[in-house]
Amino acid sequence: MNIIQTEKERIRRIIAVRKAEYSREQIEAMSRVIVERLLALPECRRAETVFAYMALPGEVQLKDFLVRCRAEGKRTAVPKVEIKEHRMHFYQIDSMDCLREGAMHILEPDPERCRCLDGEEDAFMVLPGLAFDSSGGRVGYGGGYYDRYLQEHPRHVLAAAAFHFQIFEKVPVEETDVPVPLLVTDL
After folding, report:
1. Which distant-in-sequence residues (6+ apart) come within 8 Å of 107 by Cβ?
2. In order of start, what are the domains of the chain with their CATH numbers?
């Protein structure tokens, strides 16, 4: 393991400890603040298509964000991970009923019931992550799914949703890491 990978693993352990300090109710309350801030962004308001993610416990919860974007007439999509191909694709969701438990126990769209929107190159995309810095650095879970997707689809308008305890002065980045220019937090 190289020095950057070692530092990323150290940050992942720190975030796991920090997340455990917050109750589900606190996570939901902080998530509501972030959702309001995301919806108010000019980049989100202009977008016809919004890509987001279905959150794990302890992550910024974006279900309400997706519901409200759909209510505003936006197309909404969330990723489906293809483990064997080490890829992900974004599928349109018209309701939460078209989701099922998928890779890593995350809710994912059913590709038989949802349309792939990978061709929507100008979507406003909200990315998950474990740690961020103000320079656009992002530490994810280590699979590289978002970085590979974004290298193939570079025209998305990117924002990261993060709790205040996920922000570091500087996070380690590698050449393949795609920077995230907008960081939306609860503080």
Report:
1. 54, 78, 96, 99, 100, 101
2. 3-184 (3.40.50.10420)
